Model the fold of this input.
Amino acid sequence: MLRTELASQGAAPKIARPVPLRESVFEALLELILTGHLKPGQHLAESELAGLLGVSRQPIREALQLLSGEGWVDLHPGHGAFVHAPTVEEADQLLAVRTLLETESAKLAARHSTPDGVQRLRALCARGLAAVEADDVDASVAINSELHAAITELSGNKVLAELASQVSRRVRWYHTPVARKRGRDSWREHTELVDAIAAADEDRAAEIMRKHTEHTRSSYLEQREAEPIEAAPEPTRRRRPRSPK
Amino acid sequence: MLRTELASQGAAPKIARPVPLRESVFEALLELILTGHLKPGQHLAESELAGLLGVSRQPIREALQLLSGEGWVDLHPGHGAFVHAPTVEEADQLLAVRTLLETESAKLAARHSTPDGVQRLRALCARGLAAVEADDVDASVAINSELHAAITELSGNKVLAELASQVSRRVRWYHTPVARKRGRDSWREHTELVDAIAAADEDRAAEIMRKHTEHTRSSYLEQREAEPIEAAPEPTRRRRPRSPK
DNA sequence: CAACTGTATGCTGTAGGCGGTCTACGAGAA
DNA sequence: TTCTCGTAGACCGCCTACAGCATACAGTTG
Done:
């Protein structure tokens, strides 16, 4: 059925292909990782994926490189690709970096806030609250990402926004269970944050964002202790080199 | 002659190739960009580079993707690769992000400083000062990178270290002229910074690093106003799509 | 003279194939 | 029984080839 999915996109291959195949493959593989069909530590054989998605190995290779660049898979030259298996320590550090970037973004967003921008943020808050009320966790997580992205954009620093977005995407991997637990609190904090940005209060915006992300972080760590991410079954066909360097 | 360079690496292709060709290509291309042989905005035709380096298009493509991931080239699907042309604004934002990451690194390095780590930093400072005394700008810049990398590593946060290193590498592109101007001052600040880290004085270390990187930033901006980076001559064979999106 | 259209060329994106290395596994020796 | 070695299979990295789109240019028309 995955084959079908991509094949349908390729159903009109001779007419026009505005989007390179590698990006479709990228998203398809990312989806498989996020949904857990491809488990952390698992070896990803190019031929296998190529057959699964109904394309040749070339787009698979390129998509794997893109995934590697964003930290989703590890490339071991001569040994192929493996789904990245984040340790608790690494997740913790990632969340710490996220706090740093998002806090700075919030500060700058408050400094450069515009009525138009604030209105967009408020709209996202409303949608997020609605999603929480409806117990739609997936939507809540998605809108959460949108809101944070909007704030980083509002900061006016594109480099910062891009970096924060990248880090946030990785965080999203293990974000869902946390959202389930503290969805309502999280969105209340979001609302306060937007108020601070609207008031152009840099320090308060930064402080709220710092507490907000730190809160998420500790929640995540508790969660993680309770339910470690399931790893790939041992019989991974190809072993990683002993020195993962 | 470039062909020779890579060909020599491939001179023993049948025995063992511990390092994939794409990484050699990556470094070769990066060198060409840094030295200005490939100018900002220039279109990079795969076949051309393949011929130049004496390899096929495949490793070239993969190297270009790696370069794209680190912000050295822009990939426009269907239109090929272009050497990234940083605007003054973007460079400014990049340097601001660098300040943020490096400041946090310095703070954490002070918090987690070890005698062993401090000793490494001092050794680098000594080498840096020696390079400045000898008017060896290139060495000074290189050792500067090493020092900053060592500090980020000492922070204990690998994610932060990786991000900071990536940002710093990009900064290095336009760093050299600055180093020429304020080499001595820069290394004096480094020494103070290491002292603060050795004393485990988080706040002081952070403050020194902040000032240090801000200083570099303003120096760079002055420099840039005076000598804009030379761009590719207009007759770039292939135009970028109008909406660079 | 300007704008448009048809044609030619170059380049990208993808497929398929080859050589070499790594892993796994079974047979033989200590 | 355990360790070593040889063999077979699988997979990766790279090369070559092809199809389709984008661009540039020349000819044509208003």
About this structure: The first strand of chain B starts at residue 43 and ends at 44. Chain B touches chain A at residues 18-20, 23, 61-62, 65-66, 69, 77-78, 90, 93-94, 96-97, 100-101, 104, 157-160, 163, 167 (CB under 8 Å). Chain B has two domains: 2-83, 88-226.
